[in-house]
Amino acid sequence: MDSLTVVKDVSIIIAGVVTLITFMMGVIQYARQGHDARASQFINMRRRFLEDPAFRELLNLLAKDDPRLAQMPIQDRRNFVGFFEEVALMVNSKIIKPGVAHYMFGYYILLVDRSEHFWEGLDRTSVYWEVFRQFAEQMKSVKNDSLALPEMRL
């Protein structure tokens, strides 16, 4: 009778350990899937950013703050800033880290922020560009924060 109690107790312990290991493996797999999904979404955004012909033209003009920026279609410029707002929402939702967003897009965000030609015909102070303005300020602070870039994981 005593050995039956020992077998029962050992069985309970083994079942508990197996359950704990299974649970931990599930948590690890869930975390990996989340990271993979974030990385995939970020890579798709980066591809969309670099492959859009209107965005490429805007980038070329922004590099020199070319006065021709003012003649670019307003909708293209809105879409361009809207793209950066999508990145900002990903950062605000903690899908990507600020340092990663800065590394991949910060330079361009800061070019748009300081370009007068880009904003001609657009009201940069409008409430509708608040997310962009806040994100540009955040990117300025990341640029000035030497501790922001060493960890480049999504």
In short:
The chain is an all-alpha fold and 154 residues long. The chain folds into two domains: 1-51; 52-147, no CATH class.
- Fraction of residues in β-strands: under 5%
**Helix content, binned percent:** over 70%
Give the topology string: H per helix, E per strand.
HHHHH
pLDDT < 50 runs, ≥5 residues: 146-150
> Got a strand count?
0
What value does the Rg take, in angstroms? 24 Å
Count the helices. How many?
A: 5
Shape: rod-shaped
Main beta-sheet strand count, sense and barrel state: none
Summed over residues and divided by their number, the pLDDT gives a mean of 85
> Alpha-carbon distance between the termini?
57 Å
Number of domains: 2
Secondary structure category: mainly alpha
